[in-house]
Design brief:
This protein is mostly helical and about 290 residues long. The chain is about 60% helix and about 0% strand.
């Protein structure tokens, strides 16, 4: 395809800029920042202090936003596989927004279409269009206009879901980026010894890059692997009528979401890893 004939109107400019930009920053700026920090002398003005707290915050955010997707967006809202009280809903909506995978309403609408039309042209992340398209391409550009959202009437009746849908970008930016940076700043001011003359803005920057930016990209890539790798590689013990496959490796990255062949056969089961030995911490939390 010649560049001059490329259908520019199909590009999702905001989504593409965010996904590509955050990935590039995670692959370039984050490693450079870490390398320079660990080679600075302890007395350097721009030396970050409080790395233990920053990495602990990364782990917390990784789990909180990961479960926001697996437990919240996927098993609670998309499949209604269990019931939850409002504090649980609020938690998964806040941290689901901080994963920057769209609102729970839009995510669930796409996912329900995926199950209804798996491997068909209507499938939003149809694997027959190739690995790249199923992994991330469907978010970067649209092959055809997005159909009206008509399959989430139940979620549209939920005030918390609709509140998150209206303000998802602001919620995501605040919970996912501002809060980690603010906590990093506060930690430096409150707990780093004054004699170190630590710069709290550098600690805030480190928290933003590690617990915010890098964590976002890792969680997103885990979700994307389910749409791509779990429709290409793995076992199909429950059905061979569709491309969904079980992958223990992807399950480790995604809190149990990798057992995709079972999930497509029994989509309303709160479990993805139905065997007792299968790694599925999301089902353990629900149970």
């Amino acid at each position: 395809m010649k560049f001059k004939n490329f259908p520019i109107y199909r590009i999702e400019w905001v989504t593409s800029s965010f996904l590509i930009g955050t990935a590039l920053l995670s692959l370039t700026v984050v490693p450079w920042f870490l390398w320079t920090q660990f080679h600075l002398p302890a007395e350097a003005a721009n030396k970050v202090h409080g790395w233990g707290f920053i990495w602990a915050m990364f782990v917390f955010y990784y789990y909180a936003t990961g479960f926001g997707i697996t437990l919240g967006y996927h098993r609670l809202f998309s499949h209604i596989s269990f019931k939850a009280k409002w504090p649980v809903k609020l938690f998964v909506l806040l941290f689901g927004a901080a994963s920057f995978e769209n609102s729970a309403l839009d995510w669930s609408a796409d996912h329900r279409i995926h199950h209804k039309h798996v491997d068909e042209d209507e499938d939003p992340y149809d694997i027959s269009k190739g690995f790249f398209y199923a992994h991330i391409g469907w978010l970067l550009f649209r092959l055809k206009p997005k159909p009206p959202v008509t399959n989430v009437k139940d979620l549209e009746a939920d005030p918390l879901v609709m509140w998150q849908h209206r303000y998802v970008q602001w919620i995501g930016a605040f919970v996912g980026f501002v809060v980690p940076a603010a906590l990093g700043y506060a930690y430096c001011v409150l707990f780093v010894p004054k004699e170190l003359n630590a710069n709290p803005w550098m600690t805030a920057l480190a928290a933003f890059l590690i617990a915010g930016l890098l964590r976002t990209v890792i969680v997103q890539q885990g979700t994307f692997c389910i749409n791509s790798l779990c429709h290409m590689f793995g076992r199909r013990p429950y059905s061979t009528t569709h491309s969904a496959r079980d992958s223990g490796a992807v399950a480790l990255l995604t809190f149990g979401e990798g057992y995709h062949n079972y999930h497509h056969e029994f989509q309303h089961d709160y479990r993805n890893g139905v065997k007792g030995w299968q790694f599925d911490p999301t089902k353990w939390i629900i149970w």
